[in-house]
Amino acid sequence: MFSAQGPSLRELCVQALSSVQRGYDLLAPKFDHTPFRTPQSILDATAQALSEFGPVSQGLDVCCGTGAGMQVLRPLCQGRITGVDFSAGMLAQARNAHPDATWVRADARALPFADGFDLAVTFGALGHFLPAERPAVFEGVYRALRPGGLFAFPIGAPPPPTSVALWVTLGFDLAMRVRNALWRPPFVMYYRTSPLPAVLDDLTAAGFTATTVDLTALGRRRDGSPRCRLILARKPADPH
């Protein structure tokens, strides 16, 4: 799972016993050599699906990490592309990799933007927010978008009931809950706290009109359903 350039077991343990922010500051120099980085196949499929919505002017990557989402924004955006994250370490890596972008340190639950972007994306971030925190994130993205702006992000299908993946994710989430009950500060990272219906409900409550499209390039499950969908949440052209 990890390359030779990735973190050691000891480094991962230190990260796991830190806060989310401190943990990612520590992991940042080696993050791109871990399986936690958004897979290239997901970035490519998202970019392909969004190509019909471009070009646009300004783009925003929410919880940008080391900046992988810039691969999606750059071909679509004719103007400024911006990444926002609360980890200074991750932003330092992103700045080195993409010096032409703008980088802002901020908490996604309190985004400091208003009506400035035509397109916002996020990758792999929802598990870092408890369900009660998710509305604040979506409301912040809504404020950051111009009228008519689009918020897009991929979301994977839940593992089949009989799959090993289901029990792995259940076990991980249980271990994380035990860790957070016994250790402070908490490290919020869960795989099964953002089911599609709940995410769509929260987007609607924030003011978006939300639909999904199948990311067919990522394949289908045995029952024919997509392995991954792209959520397209549109801010009304006239939000008033």
Summed up:
The chain has 240 residues and is an alpha/beta fold. The chain has helices at residues 9-16, 20-27, 40-50, 70-76, 88-97, 134-144, 164-182, 196-206; strands at 59-62, 81-85, 102-105, 117-122, 145-156, 209-214, 228-234. The protein is globular and about 50 Å long.
Structure in words:
It is built from 8 helices and 7 strands, in the order αααβαβαββαβααββ. With 240 residues, it is α/β, with parallel strands linked by helices. It has 2 domains: 36 residues, no CATH class; 158 residues, Rossmann fold, CATH 3.40.50. Strands 3-2-1-4-5-7-6 form a 7-stranded mixed sheet, with helices on both faces. The longest helix is centred in the last third of the chain and has 19 residues.
Cα end-to-end separation: 48 Å
- What is the CATH architecture assignment of the largest domain? 3-Layer(aba) Sandwich
Name the CATH class of the largest domain: Alpha Beta
Describe the largest sheet: 7 strands, mixed
* Domain module tally: 2
CATH names the topology of the largest domain as Rossmann fold
User: Into which percent range does the helicity of residues fall?
Assistant: 25-40%
Q: How large, in whole angstroms, is the Cα Rg?
A: 17 Å
Shape verdict? globular
List the secondary-structure elements in sequence, H or E: HHHEHEHEEHEHHEE
CATH superfamily of the largest domain: Vaccinia Virus protein VP39
Lateral arrangement of strands in the main beta sheet: 3-2-1-4-5-7-6
Low-confidence stretches: none
Class derived from helix and strand content = alpha/beta
Count of alpha and pi helical runs? 8
Count of distinct strands: 7
